[in-house]
Amino acid sequence: MTKPFEHIKEMQEQMKFETDWLAKHAEEYDTDEYKAHIARYENISNQFEQQEGYQYESKIKTVLHGLNFTEDDFNRPINDFSGGQKTRLSLAQMLLNEPDLLLLDEPTNPLRYGDDTMA
């Protein structure tokens, strides 16, 4: 489910690298190199916030809960799911990509969850 957020995860890694570097070289706070690392961190951090990087895990959980998956399902291997559950996982993946338009085949085939039906 994290594939749509790979760029977010890369930014997290870059921010961690920069904060680790800054912590390790704190005594050099007045050098041009240190200031360049601060500028890189600020740039990445701003992009991260603009792309809602702090919310990506919440988005995944919201979509999965909306498709009737439980917290226990989040770490299950995909092969453990039924065919219908795998279909819902594919739908979740598409929704997380936030397409401008999503056309679904068989519009009269409802998604059923227990007693609830979503058309």
Polypeptide structure, described:
- The protein is mostly helical and 119 residues long.
- It has two domains: 52 residues; 53 residues, no CATH class.
- Helix content is 53%, strand content 5%.
- It is elongated.
- The two termini are 23 Å apart.
- Pfam families: ABC_tran.
Brief descriptors of the model:
single chain, 119 residues, mainly alpha, two-stranded antiparallel sheet, 4 helices, 2 strands, 5% strand, elongated, ATP hydrolysis activity, P-loop_NTPase, nucleotide-binding, ATP binding, ABC_transporter-like_ATP-bd
First-to-last CA distance = 23 Å
Mean pLDDT score:
88
Show unreliable segments.
Answer: none
Fraction in helix: 40-55%
The amount of beta strand, in percent, is 5-15%
Described by the principal axes of the CA atoms, the overall outline is: elongated
How many helical stretches? Answer: 4
Radius of gyration using CA atoms only? 20 Å
> In what order do the strands lie side by side in the largest sheet?
1-2
User: How many beta-strand runs?
Assistant: 2
Largest sheet: 2 strands, antiparallel
Summed up, the domain count is 2
Output the structural class.
mainly alpha
Output the helix-strand order: HHHHEE
